[in-house]
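About this split. The held-out portion is used to measure sequence recovery: a designer receives only the structure tokens and must propose an amino acid at every position. Recovery is the fraction of positions where the proposal matches the reference. Here is one held-out target exactly as it appears in the evaluation file.
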């Protein structure tokens, strides 16, 4: 889907196209690790009841276009590349269905100690092995929205490069 019409207005979705980036020296035998980054419809929509929906998600659930999520999604490609390039920290987080994902906020690793509890724009993703043709690992950004974060409650933080390499070498979905 390259665009969607909402209330008579065409919305461009080209920023949600899959992109591939590389991490030098982190792949097998010191090769570059290629990461295919894709984006789910939850990055531009929120849950709703049937009859009030603008779209149906990947799982057949009704979704309603969300202006705030759409606005944030316009910078998701750049954020995803930055979180890989700068090796951001993330943590495990369960969604409403108790499925585990990783969560990350747009904070460079050098500023992680300065974080204050409160409302942050949180990006949720998971990793799984790629076919190896154009990428080694798939990073799927499932959603992004404002959420209360209490950093002292986070049991463990992971850096992105470690997770990418774990996914590559264990050849399984994480978390």
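Reference sequence for scoring:
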């Amino acid at each position: 889907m390259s665009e969607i019409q909402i209330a008579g207005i065409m919305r461009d979705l080209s920023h949600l196209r899959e992109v591939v980036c590389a991490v030098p020296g982190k792949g097998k035998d010191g090769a570059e690790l290629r990461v295919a980054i894709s984006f789910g419809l939850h990055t531009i929509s929120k849950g709703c009841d049937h009859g009030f929906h603008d779209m149906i998600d990947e799982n057949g659930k009704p979704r309603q276009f969300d202006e705030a999520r759409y606005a944030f999604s316009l910078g998701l490609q750049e954020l995803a590349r930055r979180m890989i390039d700068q090796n951001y920290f993330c943590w495990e987080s369960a969604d409403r269905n108790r499925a585990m994902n990783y969560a990350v906020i747009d904070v460079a690793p050098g500023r992680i100690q300065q974080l204050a509890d409160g409302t942050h724009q949180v990006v949720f993703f998971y990793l799984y092995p790629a076919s190896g043709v154009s990428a080694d690992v798939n990073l799927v950004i499932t959603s992004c929205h404002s959420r209360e974060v209490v950093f002292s409650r986070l049991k463990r933080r992971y850096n992105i490069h470690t997770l990418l390499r774990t996914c590559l070498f264990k050849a399984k979905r994480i978390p």
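Annotator remark: The first strand starts at residue 3 and ends at 6.
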